[in-house]
Design goal:
Layout (H helix, E strand, L loop, with lengths): L2 H4 L7 E5 L4 H12 L3 E6 L2 H10 L4 E4 L5 H15 L4 E4 L15 H28 L4 E5 L12 H21 L5 E7 L5 H14 L3 H10 L9 H11 L11 E4 L7
Helix pairs in contact: 2-9, 4-5, 5-6, 7-8
Amino acid sequence: MNMIERMLPRPGLRVLVTAGASGIGAAIARAFLEAQARVLICDIDQQALAEFAAVHPAVSTLSADVSDEAEVDTLIHTASERLGGLDVLVNNAGIAGPTGAIDELSVEDIRRTLDVDLMGQFLVVRRAAALLRASDAGVILNISSVAGRLGYALRTPYAASKWGIVGLTQSLAKEMGPDGIRVNAILPGVVRGARIEAVIRERAEASGLSYADMEAQYLTNISLRRMVEPEDIAATALFLASPGGANISGQAISVCGNVENI
């Protein structure tokens, strides 16, 4: 195997990507499909699932909410049946959560954010663990955020969940490493797309600023002064699942252009 081959996942990997029908998840799913992996994606957006499958007929799809234990059970059973096992789990599902001062947030919104962003990863790993142990190339990639290493005023439920994902990742790396399973977290920065546009708009309103001023503020806090593309996250995921990433585990890897503050 030459150096270039070591930097790409081996063909035929069995891959599950949660929330894989749009945004970062879709970019990761496309990348693994291009690398000749067998890919199952789940999402709560059935229209997005159908649209992704129409463009990528090789993908397998399932509607599932990762915060629902019964739906997660069905998801992992489906992965076992359709893929014949599991080599790579990409825990990508997450929501932006509410924007506002801590004493203005509803308990319902806080709980929903934690349930999807953090508890969802627990539930999926819990059920997928046996399949990953049976693989000879088990990899877990937990999508966190740059908010998992920096405090995030007015977005506390989101930041708390993303910090929790880093702790989950490091703990799982210790627990599952003896089984040959590598566990890492990817921490995206400001990723171009509809989701960050909504976040910037909400935070601009909460701060009394215009959208343009808030966007400029976000970019000023990034050393490279630009947003990250979803494909940048996908490229990192591919490498971490490749032979080249064979000895990378327990790490929280930022792909953010060096976000200095949020």
